Amino acid sequence: MENYLFNQVASEYHSRLRFYRHKTVKVMTIISAIVLIMSIIFWFVQKTNNELFPLFIVFIVIFIFLALITIMLSRTWISEKPLFEYLIPKVIEDISASGEATITYSPYPKEREFFENVGIFHKGVTKYLRYKMEYLSQNHFSTTIYDCYAYVSNGKTTTTMLDGLYYCFEIQNPQAFQLRSWGSPALKGIKFNKVDSSDKTKVYSEISIQKPIENKCFQIYQLMRASNPKGIQYLGGYKNQFDIAISQPKRFKRMKDLTPENYRLLKASILDNCIFAENVYTHLTEY
């Protein structure tokens, strides 16, 4: 990207960061003001009813707590929305203009149905999608990539199932199967048998089809493991969909300062995702 174009993008990006920070601080200020007003009311009321004095103390403590949070947010809050709604689309425009890849992009998609096609996650898992990216390769195969945060919560504790990328490929599968580092399959109408298990990998295949899982699936799983050995990985196929979910905790989820180096790293990470999709597709079709 030319310097003058980068400066325009950086200026707009930082302007959006300030907008969302001010918006958040404004909301917190209004809430704090309401609590302060309640504190003042209880201050005057408790003069005639001493039993209400503890409530006055409670509201004062809450007000001080909210005021401190507001001050902290005014200095440190970084919204993710400028990154996903503005900056990444600009980077993808740059990639498309240079001919490096063909990508379409949508921030915060509402679709969730694709999760049910392979059954990697149970229905009780909450899925939060930051973006949907469709990559069309030079060989004319397409891959849909979602930035996904999936978790389960019982109100007291939260367990992260995935904080990373979810890839969907249109590939015919001879049977339902899954390789996963955590949890168990949740595909409606299909019963699975655990055929192998180790400390880092669980292997499941469809009970009704007594056929070994193809070796290329294990090769792809090793590619996933190599990209993040300590992370959570899922791989599964059913009918004409082949899905991969891989944790990537170090990817950009927020960006405080848009510098040329950060721009380059963000662009490289998007292209790396496309290269990974190419490698997976190669294993699926050539081995």
What does this entry show, briefly?
The chain is an alpha+beta fold and about 290 residues long. Helices cover about 45% and strands about 25% of the residues.
Individual helix count: 6
Shape: flat
The share of residues in helices is 40-55%
Main sheet: strand order: 1-2-3-4-9-8-5-7-6
Mean pLDDT value: 89
Question: Major β-sheet, in short?
Answer: 9 strands, antiparallel
Please, what is the oligomeric state?
A: single chain
Order of helices and strands: HHHEHEEEEEEHEEH
Helix vs. strand class = alpha+beta
Low-confidence stretches: none
Radius of gyration: 24 Å
Cα distance spanning the termini = 38 Å
Number of strands: 9
Number of discrete domains? 2
What does this structure look like?
With 287 residues, this protein is α+β, with helices and mostly antiparallel strands. It has 2 domains: 3-76; 81-286, no CATH class. It contains 6 helices and 9 strands. It has helices spanning 3-45, 53-76, 81-97, 115-118, 215-227, 260-286; strands at 102-107, 126-136, 142-153, 158-169, 177-180, 192-197, 202-206, 233-238, 241-247. Strands 1-2-3-4-9-8-5-7-6 form a 9-stranded antiparallel beta sheet, with helices on one face. Strand 3 and strand 4 (158-169) form a beta hairpin. Helix 1 (3-45) packs antiparallel against helix 2 (53-76) and helix 1 runs antiparallel to helix 3. The protein is flat.
